[in-house]
Design a protein that fits this description.
Shape: elongated
Largest sheet: 2 strands, antiparallel
Number of strands: 4
Structural class: alpha+beta
Strand content: 15-25%
Helix content: 40-55%
Oligomer: single chain
Distance between the termini: 28 Å
Order of helices and strands: EEHEHEHHH
Strand order of the largest sheet: 1-2
Length: 109
């Protein structure tokens, strides 16, 4: 679930609904971004939300990164490390967060 404020009231929308709204806005304004959903939710929530996200209709490509994809990427990064002692540091960069920007900032800094 994504919570956002709209006209000083809290509105609750599913991830799929939010993606559709963003996609429609981008499309109407001539933008073509890649839309990526990073999912750090609990497995039970993923089981509920992923099928709904799969049905989401968009004008642009929609990518999903869940725990399985994250583990595959971590395995790839760890295979490229010259010092295996850094594996725990790399894993900590991808820990679940309460905001997508936090993980992105850790990676780019």
């Amino acid at each position: 679930m994504i919570y956002r404020s709209q006209s000083q009231r809290t509105v609750c929308a599913t991830v799929g609904e939010t993606v559709e709204q963003y996609d429609e806005h981008f499309w109407r304004n001539g933008h073509s971004p890649q839309i990526i959903v990073f999912d750090d939710s609990a497995p039970t929530n993923q089981e509920k939300s992923f099928p709904l996200l799969e049905k989401t209709k968009t004008h642009h490509d929609l990518y999903y990164v869940g725990p399985r994809e994250k583990e595959q990427f971590l395995a790839y990064l760890n295979s490229r490390l010259r010092d295996k002692r850094l594996e725990s540091l790399v894993k900590s960069l991808f820990r679940p967060s309460y905001g997508g920007r936090a993980g992105t900032l850790r990676l780019w800094s």
